[in-house]
Amino acid sequence: MMKPLCAIAALTLSFATPLAAQSTSGLTLSSLKTYAYDSVVSWQERDFRPAGLEEVIATEGMVLLDVRAVFDVPWTEDLTRLSISSSDILLVLPDGTEVQSFGSYEYWGMFHTNASSASASRPRDWPDEDQDLYYHSVFLVPVGTTGALLRLPADDGEPGWEGPVEVPAVSAEQDAAMFAEFTVLDVVRTRTLALADGRDSRAFTSPMTAPEGHVFADLDIEVLAFAANEFDGDGRFYWHTYDFRLTGPDGETYPLIGERFIDKLLDSQFNGVAVGDTADRRAIWLVPEGAAQATLMFGTSPVAEVSLDTPLAD
Asked: Which neighbouring-strand residues pair with 218?
């Protein structure tokens, strides 16, 4: 089961730069939060790796500075789009060293080695509606650094921003599973998956049969979103099927076969649910026929115990 919402609030506390520290370059800083980590788990190539096999990013003598900023954009009739390349955004250290970002969180707790650009578009019904610029990225800075200058350069008449950011005390990175609760509503075990696709004269069936000694475990998983795990403020929790793992009592990882979509079986699907709402998805794993218990994991965290001791449906 998931941590209560108060735990989320506690883990999201960070240093907030005073909003008085503004640039005169055009963008207006609305909020700025920073986090610092000794290490983070990379989700860059983990999609189908076994549970417990984690690529940990850590560099001796360095900390990872996570910068999350929101800016008000001075939209005009001429300014309809703002885009600043990740390679142009710099963190300037006290000794003048310029540092580029090396990664970011695709969703909170899911670190990827892709630097983020800063981009936003003017709303269609502007000026009645506004659109802020959300910027987030992670930089490597030397241990002992207490502050730096973040520079989003102005270019060709587009607004930019420059101002101080502080490097807070090191903490653990956020857990990708902390933003939702995961419940296994039902488990169906079968030897054969009845699959079909196409329509009319192109309709066909494509059953899949488990190898000897194994069965399919079809899990109906309910996801209840506690909080958004993205940064642009749309209030949703997002995940892919391959963010889950199903492990046995000895820690072995059972193979993910895919997620059901109507009568098809897809390798993975991209899913999202609004905060406060639930979504049900059916994911299927191949498990030993004699397995009685398993653990469902989301990312690196166990989120539900699963009973596999149910009669076969076929």
From this structure: 188, 284
- What share of residues in the chain are helix, strand, coil (percent, to 5)? 5, 50, 45
What are the tokens at 166? 């502080």
Q: Do 219 and 240 lie in a common domain?
A: yes
Measured from the Cβ of residue 61, the count of other Cβ atoms closer than 10 Å reads: 8
**Structural domain total, the chain:** 2
Q: In terms of DSSP bridges, do strands 90-92 and 98-100 run parallel, antiparallel, or are they unpaired?
A: antiparallel
Q: Is the dihedral of CA 33, 5, 104, 83 positive or negative?
A: negative
**In sequence order, which residues have a C-beta less than 8 Å from that of residue 206 and are 6 or more positions away?**
195, 196, 197
CB 304 within 8 A of CB 295: yes
Q: What CATH number does the domain containing 283 carry?
A: 2.60.40
Spacing of C-alpha 252 from chain mean position = 24
Q: Give the CA angle between residues 167, 172, 178 to the nearest 5°.
A: 125
The per-residue pLDDT string of the chain (314 residues; one tens digit each, 9 = 90 and over) reads 444 443 443 333 344 444 434 444 489 999 999 999 999 999 999 999 999 999 999 999 999 999 999 999 999 888 989 899 999 999 999 999 999 999 999 999 999 999 999 999 998 898 888 999 999 999 999 999 999 999 999 876 668 899 999 999 999 999 999 999 999 999 999 999 998 887 887 887 888 999 999 999 999 999 999 999 999 867 899 999 999 999 999 999 999 999 999 889 999 999 999 999 999 999 999 999 999 999 999 999 999 999 999 889 88
Whose CA is closest to 119, among 157, 71, 156, 165?
71
Say if 157 falls within a structural domain: yes
Q: pTM surpassing 0.70? A: yes
